[in-house]
Structure formats: C-alpha cells, structure tokens
Amino acid sequence: MSVPVAGRAAPGAGASTWHAAWLPPAAFRALGARNVLVHGDGPLVDTVLDEVTQACARHGGRVWHSPPWDVDADLVLASRAAGPIANAAAEAARLGATPAVDGTGDGSLGDEGFLLARVDGVTVVLADAPAGLLYGLFHVVRLGAAAFDDDRPARRHQPALARRILDHWDNVAVHPVSGQVERGYSGGSVFWRDGAARGEPDRIRDYGRLLAACGVNAVTVNNVNVHDTEARLLTDRLDEVAGIADVLRPYGIRVHLSVTFAAPVVLGGLPTADPLDDRVRAWWAEATRRVYRRIPDFGGYLVKADSEGRPGPFAYGRDHADGANLLAGALAPHDGVVRWRAFVYDHRQDWRDRSTDRARAAHDHFAPLDGRFRDNVIVQVKFGPVDFQPREPVSPVLAAMPATRLAVELQVTQEYTGQQRHVCHLGPAWSEVLRFAPWGAAGDSIADVITRGGLVAVSNVGDDPFWTGHPLAQANLYAFGRLAWDPRLDPGAILDEWIGLTWLPVTMGDPELVRRTLHAIMDDSWRTYERYTAPLGVGFMVRPGHHYGPDVDGYEYTPWGTYHFADRDGVGVDRTRATGTGFTGQYPQPWSEVYESLRRCPDDLLLFFHHVPYGHVLHSGRTVIQHIYDTHFAGVEEVAAMRERWRLLAGAFEPAAHQRVAERLDEQLRCAVEWRDQVNTYFFRKSGVPDAHGRRIH
C-alpha cells in the first residue's frame, strides 16, 4: 500500500511511501511563510538551514544564512557560539533576547538547550550549541503561529534528562522464533532485512528527523538478545553500524550497540569471557578502540546478561558489577557508557514453590551492588518489578541504589498492551511512573532519581507505512520523546501536541471536532485496556509465547513465574512480609507499609500484593469479584464507543489512515470481547459468585 506523504523525499525522488507522522509539511506553515535568518555553522546548523529552506520554499517565506546586509526577519535562529550577527536588525534582536539567558542560573543553555523569546516583533531562538538550535527549530514548529505572538514571554528550554534513548529489538538475520524484529508489531526493521543492512538512508534519515523533533537523541540499532549474526556488528560488520550512524548524525542521534557478554569467546576466540581475566579486558579495550575509530560519536554498549539464557558473569562466579565494570573500563577513555539491564531473574523456577517471586529478583541481585559500579555504568531498570505489564508498582530497585546511575526502561512497543492492534495510549501510565515519589510526597520522584541515567524505551517502529502499524500508536513514540525531554509534562497536553501536528484534517470539516474525538478515543485508552484484561494489578493472563489475547492460566504453571494463584476462595499473590514473599520490604517508607497493609494498598495494585477472598470489599465499595465482572463489561463497551467515534470521522483523514485504524478497532473489539468472556467465565467458575447485574457469563 502506498500512503501519500506530505513530507520530504530525497532530492530528485518522488513522494515517499511512508507517513509523515508529526512532521507533515503543513506543520511548517507558520514558520515557512515568514522571513527567517539562520546564524551559525556546523553540521547540525546545516540541518536547521535545510529544514527552514524547504519550509520557506513550500510556503512562500525567505531564508538567509548570516547575511551581512540588513534583512527584515520574522524569526532569528542563532548560535551564540557563532558570535555577533553582521545583520544589524537581527543582531539587535539577538542582543535583546540575551538578558533572558544571562539573567537565569549560570547563563548557560547547555549542549541541547535553547531560549525562545519575542523581541520587538521578532521571534528569536538562541542556543549555545548546534543541537540546541535544532531542538529550538522543532519547538517553533510545535508552537506554530503561537511562536510569533507578541505577548509570548521569554523562556529557557533544557532537557531534564541528557540520555533519551530508543532501544530497537531488531535482528539483522531473521530469527526462527522472534523474526526480524523481536516483539515487533510494525512490519520489518527500518535498519536490517534478511541478514543485511537495508540500504534505505532516506527512510532512516526521516526516522531520525521524527525522533529529534520529539526529543530523542540516541538509538540502539540491534536486539538485546544478541544472536550470532548480530554479535558481529561489533567487529567485521561494524561498517554497517557506521553507515546508520552517518545517516542519523545530522539530526543529533547517537548510535548505541547491543553486545553479547560472551563476545571475547564468540568473536575473539578466547577460552573465557571472565570479566577479571586480563586477556578479556584487553580484547574489549581493543574492540572498543576500533568502534570509536570508525564511529567517533558512538554512544556505548547495551548488555542483557544472565537473563533468559543470555551469557553473563555468573558463569565465572562473578557478579554484575564485575561484568558491567569490564565494559565500562573499555568505554571510559572514549566517554562512552555501558547500559547494563537489571532484568535478571530465574526463568526456570518451580511453580510449586510459592516462596520464589520473580518480582523480587532485580532488587535481590542489584541492590547489594550499589556503590560498586563505575561512573560510566548505567543500570537500566524496567519501570516495574516484573515485565512491562499494563499495571505494576514502580520497581523498588529505583529507590535502592542511590550511589548508582539508574535509567528507567519503558516499552513503547505494545507487547503486553495490545501489540499495536489495540488503541492504548501509554503517556498517562509513564507519567504516573515518572511522578511516583518512592520516599513519600515530600521526597524525590522517579524523574529525579534518573537524572544521571536517563529514560529508555523499546521502540515500536518498523517499516510499516505508518511507522508503528497502528497509526494512533505513533502517539506513544511521540509521548516517550517528550516525557524524556521533560518528565513533568502533562500527558494530555502532549497528546494534544501530537494530534495538532499529525492529524491535520484533509477536508473542510471541523478541526476541533477531530481533536475532541481523538482525545475521547485515546485519553483513557490505557485504563480501558486494563479494564478488559488482567484485573487489579495481577498481570500475565496472556497467551504464552506471543503474548496476545487472553489465557488466564497460560503462565500459571510454567517456569516463567506464577502470577495470580486463583482458587475457589480467592485470588492474588501474597507478597507481604508477614505471610508472603517479603517483596513489600524492598520498598522504603511509606510504601513498604502501604503495600503491606490490606487496608491501605491501592485497589489497582491489590492483587499484585495480596491474596484476598472474592468477597473482599475494595475502596470503591465493590467486591473483588464484582469489580472483575463490572470492569470487563465496561471495557468492551468503551472499545465499542471508540469504534463508533472513529467511524464518524470518515472523510476527515486520508482514506488509508482511516481504514487502517478502523480495521484495528474492529480487531480490538473482537479481542476485548474474548478477554471479557474468558476472564469473567474463569472467575465465575472459580468463585461460584454470580454477577450482581445478571449479565451473561458463559
């Protein structure tokens, strides 16, 4: 299918066959219709100049690059490092904006920050470094005509987190189980196809452009599960990685690489990968020097070790600090980082052993190592203690390692939230995580904890014409970038930005109706998904393997973990210190006591922390069993309403996009009905308690 794009194509090429997402040409109208002066030099400034030039050519404006003569500019984009502007009028505007920078803090905007100000009828963007100018340009695009309001106050913009990274679980060679992209729901990889680099720089460049426009500044180009072919990206196939880096560099995107801990054995022919072996250290040092000779701005390594069968330091009697510090030592001379995943647990446990608790594992392994990691190690922690479920508590590891750089890992790809066949806007869920205060309301939030480590997510992008399979799933990618830039942004406002940029109506219909309708469909869609799937934080009621659709007991008797313990009397996992696995004790006060207490535990996490009778009364006033029935019926009704709202927007979008969403909503409703019927029937048969409203349960 060819999807028309109002976006850019390579010089001399025809229209692209992929969707323009949040950078359609119409989004540049307010900027491109004006007179713009760009001041500065360097590759990223060249990117800014190129963007402005194309916008002005399309919309009738004019652009100048540091002219020595006077011009009547409406917008000045200036790098302060480039010095005064020879153009007198533009220099006056630049000088007029400068006090708004110097009057705050140390007067520095940093490597990626910028100032937006309105001075005597001119909009001015100032930056200390070219990356800041690029982000400032895209902020002007986001604001549209509002960037030129005379009453706009001057404001500094700087990212809260320096590392804002997307990890691709893309395989170079098609894997017999996980395919080209592991947990990929948007077609093939944008980087690789059938064992080789795709060789489509235009698509990768446009991808980097989308990422920069929402705030992402790094990508990992291959799967954390590093198979034999992918391992060679570190050595004899490094040129392919460098080629990707070359294409992404003009948009400030740095490349990272997933590596196998066993690389000295697999690639180097050594008999060991022991992190304390001098031969192993020397091998990693030389391999890393080769990487930086070829890719000078390389970001670093990502490692999954001793997890789900991947090799790691445990094989040599070493711990994760030993393993991570090995790679950190090789990267340190080049200012690179190693991101070491804390996703370590026993996936061969005995389901009969109720003392084994997968939720405890990361804390048990990593908290005792706090203070032992080198400064260029980032321990990358999944937001919850289990595995990207629709509802989990925040991982206690994030409050247990104050002497370690920590990053939170999110999952933009919807492995457990509908796989881009369901509308499930995750911005509100991530915002809850980032605002969570482990030490109580007066203490730091998770956003504060990860300042030195950053925010990371598993990408949901593929070679699908709409990038993310489901066109509305683009909002999750956009929201991740914006929350990584500023974790305190309101997710509703972020969604509003994305709607305004992406879904410009193609008819003369009411744009406000489109906006209201999309908000009505998407604002609460994460909670809608939660309502018709696993209840009250219990998790993992999905089909094993592919993780799509309901299977209430699918994982209950497997080595991967046990998640609900439903019997005739009740449901839930006892994770208390008093009678259960003791997991609640991994949290600091006040949450260790809140989660321990049956009376105080939040309803939406009750079954994660407690095994309770079906007649237990929630804070809502409903019993657990009635809550299960009510929410599953309500969730289906909400999906049906989503589908009807979307049907009424036919004609307001390009036909291919409207059709794709309509098809996905049909599937979402079918699947939601299946979830409702299986979950309600299961618990009716377990409990013997009928629905208070007499609705049909099979």
From TrEMBL:
GO terms for cellular component: extracellular region. Residues 156-467 form the Glycosyl hydrolase family 67 catalytic domain. Keywords: Hydrolase. It comes from the Bacteria. Residues 468-695 form the Glycosyl hydrolase family 67 C-terminal domain. Signal peptide: none annotated. One of its GO terms (biological process) is xylan catabolic process. Pfam families: Glyco_hydro_67C, Glyco_hydro_67M. Coiled coil: none annotated. Gene3D superfamilies: Alpha-glucuronidase, C-terminal domain, Chitobiase/beta-hexosaminidase domain 2-like, Glycosidases. SUPFAM superfamilies: (Trans)glycosidases, beta-N-acetylhexosaminidase-like domain. The keyword Hydrolase applies. GO terms for molecular function: alpha-glucuronidase activity; xylan alpha-1,2-glucuronosidase activity. This is Alpha-glucuronidase. It comes from Micromonospora humi.
